Every structure is written in C-alpha cells, then in structure tokens.
Amino acid sequence: MNDTSIYNECLELATRVEGLKNRIAQRREEKDKISHLNAVLSSIRDVSRLIIKEKDPQSLIQGICSSLIEKRSFHNAWIVLVDEHGRVTTGSEAGLGADFQKILQKIENDRMPRCCHMVLSEDRFLVTTNPCRECLNCPVSYMYDGRGSISARLEHDGRIYGILTVSVPIAYSQDPEEHELFKDVADDIAYALHSIDVERDRKRKEVALREARDKLERRVRERTRDLEVLSSRLLNAQEAERKRIAADLHDGIGQCLSAVKFMVETVIQQLDGKVARQAIKSLDALVPLLQESSEEIRNIIMNLRPSILDDLGILATIGWFCRQFTSVYSHIRLTKTIEIEEDQVPETLKIIIFRIVQEAMNNIAKYADAGAVSIYLGKKDNALELRIEDNGRGFSVDRFMTSGSSALAFGLTGMKERAELSGGSFRITSSPGKGTRVEARWGYSCVRSY
Predict the structure, then answer these.
(1) CB 304 within 8 A of CB 351
(2) DSSP 3-state of 242
(3) Closest Cα partner for 106 from 132, 140, 74?
(4) pLDDT digits (tens, 9 = 90+) for 250-290
(5) Is 154 helix (H, G, I), strand (E, B) or coil?
(6) What is the pLDDT, as a whole number, of residue 279?
(7) Crossing angle for the helix pair 3-53 and 176-249, nearest 10 degrees?
(8) What is the sign, positive or negative, of the torsion defined by CA atoms of 339, 436, 413, 360?
(9) Where in 63-110 does DSSP place strands (E)?
C-alpha cells in the first residue's frame, strides 16, 4: 500500500466521520426539537386547563405566562391586555422580572415597542429573529441575546384583547410547526378572554335587571302601602260618616218622629169622647204609620252604625244582629258560636268583624238560598278567627272575584280589603252546589290600626 492509497483511505474515513457527526448532530437537533415540542404541547395543555378553570383575566394571563415557561418550552412570556380603545388595562409576565414594567410604561406613554405596535396595528402574527438588533427601543431586548421572539395578537370576533409574546431559540423561531402551535394558543387565550367578557356582561345585566326588578318591587310595595293607607283612610272616613249620619238621624228625624207620634196620640186622647170617632179616624191611622217610620229609621241607624257596638261591644252586637236576622229570615236556621271574651277582641277589629258578618249574612240572604248558617268567633293559636258558613247554592269564587262586576263581587272585595288592611287574612271557599265558607283571621301580633 503506497502513500496515495493511505491518503485516500484516511480521506474517506474522515468523510465518514464527518457524516457521522452530522447525523449525530441532526439526531440531537431532532431530539431537542421533539423535546421542545413536547414541552410546548405540555404547556398548551396546562393553558387549556387554566382557560377552563380561571374566570378572572388577571389570574388567567398570569397563570398562562407561568405555564408557558414552567416546562422550559419558552424562555420568557408576557401578555399585555388592552380595552376597546387600545388602552392598556393590565399585563403579566414570567421570566422578565421588574423590566416588564418598563414595557407597560412605554405603552402608556405612547412609545409602544416595535412588536406591540406591529402586532396590534398591522400584522396579527410577528416573528423577530434577532430582537437585540431589530427592537432597539425595547427595554427587554437585551434579554433575547441568542434567541428570537414570537408575538401574536389576541383577537376574537373582531375584538382585540391584547398581545402575547414569548422568547424561543432562534432555530425554532422560524419553524412552521412552532408558529401553528403558537397561533392556536393565542386563539385559545383570545376566546377565553372573550368568554370572560361575555360572562361578565351577562352578570352585569343580571345585576342591573335584579336591581331594576328590586327597585320596581320596592315602588310597587310603596305604592301598595300608599293605596292601603288611602283605602284605610277612606274606610275610616266612611265609618265616621256612617256614625255621623246615624247620630243625625237619631237626634233629628228619629226624635221628630217620636215627638210627632206622641203629640198625635195626645191629641187623640184629648179629643176622645168630645168629637165623633169618625172625625179622628185619620189621626188613628197616622199613629201606626209614624210607628213604622220610626222603626224604619231605627233600622237604618242600626245598619249605618249600631249604637250597641259602641255601648256594649262586638259580642252583644253579633247577638243582636243574629236575632234581627232570624226575625226577618225565619226559614234559615242560624247557629252562633262565641268562644272569646269581649276584652280579648282588639278595639280596632270590632267594627271590621261586624261589617264582615253584616256583608256575609246579607249575601247569604240575597244569593245563597241556604237553609242553615253558622257563625263562629273565637281565639285559636294566639289568633282571632271569624268564620261564617252556609249550605246554600255556592258559586265560582274565581269567576266572581275576577269579574268584579256584580254586587256580590264588590261585597267580597270589600270584606277582603277590611280584613287585610287591618293586618289579617281573608279566605272564601265555595263551589256551585256546595255552600260557602268565609274566613277571616288576625294574629294578635299583626293587628294594625284601622
């Protein structure tokens, strides 16, 4: 073997060694790339979990920045968020430290770094191979020595939410696979920010709707209370007017009729035996008419405001009313049960109880065609209870109460208002052919002035 052969063999061996070195380097690069891509994919999975879990924008972007560098997929990462007008609202970083504040200050002072300016106003996606040379006005460009950067606009449905920038080895900054993964991450972050905005807007609307509803309910309660006070005053005025008219009838017309009757009877006695009976016959006929008129005036007075209520109380008044009712409607069997003492009935409820009894019994006489009626007034479970029942024809409560067009409906509404305005509850139960039950109940702690 001569020198030439040895040289050729050495040259071939050197070529093979060089090829082997290249393949080893290529394998190492491929291995590093796979490792890097795995780290990126792992970071993306962490980001996806954060997007699902986190509902606060600040916490979300801080968690994303930390996740992107945690698996050594990127050297550093930072996110700046802007509002609809492009003004910075917040920002987060991982791997930059205190220098990140300088970026925020430059943006706020309208001296936006190159990557921010281009991504927010021009290109949605930007790759910077050598930030140290290309981004001279960036306060963190010195940190990118030997690395490139990738920036992407965070945008969804036309709304720009901000910018995401990461630092990567220069070799990967030009990799299409890296670009696609990064774009996917940016799109996912933008969609997450959009979802947070939608949810916040929904909650704001719910709060506004709830506040509007509460305000309306308060106004309705206030107006209802005002109407209740007005109704109470009207009923008070009505009772006062009834009492005044009853007193005027008693002291005026009632006494005049009594005086006239007395004078006619006196004249008849004086003329008796002195003139022919035929001459005073008309005077004899006048006496029963005067008596009947007096009785009618007395009935009107008692219906307007029975003096017995003020003199003897509600129990005596109910007893008197029942006797009057029985004398007029003798075909109706009336049962009265009183299980309470006079002093156990609040003064403010006495006239209300009488009016409900009066209205209910008048309705029974006019409409029920009943053969039996029962009245109960008593104390049960620290509450005063009034109940009137009949076995008459009954009726559809809903139809009558909603129509409000009949005298019966008007009377039922009046009873209900009297009971509820005084702090009680009112219920009427009836159906065709099954009679009617009227119930009013007042808790002693809830009784209001009438």
Answers:
(1) no
(2) helix
(3) 140
(4) 667 777 877 777 787 777 777 776 776 666 777 777 778 87
(5) strand
(6) 65
(7) 0
(8) negative
(9) 77-82, 88-94
Report the side by side order of strands in the sheet with 333-339. 333-339, 372-380, 383-390, 436-443, 425-430
Give the Cα-Cα-Cα angle 103, 105, 110 (nearest 5 degrees).
95
CB contact set of 154 (below 8 Å; sequence gap of 6+) = 79, 81, 160, 161, 162, 163, 164, 186, 189, 190, 193
Q: Buried b / exposed e across 394-417, counting CB within 10 Å, b at 16+?
A: bbebeebeeeeeeebbebbeebbb
Q: How far is CA 208 from CA 57, 84, 222, 344, 420, in A?
A: 22, 22, 21, 49, 33
Question: CA-CA distance, 223 to 229, in Å (whole number)?
Answer: 10
Rounded CA gap, 313 and 305, in Å? 12
Please give the structure tokens belonging to residue 300: 């009107």
Distance between alpha carbon 69 and the CA centroid of its chain, in Å? 47
Phi, psi of 108 (to 5 degrees): -65, -30
Residue 99 to residue 139: CA distance in whole angstroms: 7
For residue 427, list its beta bridge partners.
439
- Locus of tokens 């040895």: 6
The β-bridge partners of 79 are: 92, 164
328 vs 306: CA distance, rounded Å: 17
Q: How many CA atoms lie within 13 A of 391 on its CB side?
A: 8
Residue pair 46/70 in contact (Cβ under 8 Å)? The answer is yes
Q: Does residue 336 sit in helix, strand or coil?
A: strand
The amino acid at 392: G
Task: Give the tokens for residue 90.
Answer: 């917040």
Tell whether the model's pLDDT for residue 404 goes beyond 60: no
* Separation of alpha carbons 329 and 365, rounded Å: 8
CA dist 129 and 147 (Å) reads 7
How long, in residues, is the chain?
Answer: 450
Higher-pLDDT residue of 89 and 36 is 89
CA 414 to chain centre: 30
pTM of the model: 0.53
Separation of alpha carbons 306 and 242, rounded Å: 10
Spell out the domains of the chain, with CATH numbers in brackets.
Answer: 34-201 (3.30.450.40), 311-450 (3.30.565.10)
Supply the DSSP symbol for 393: -
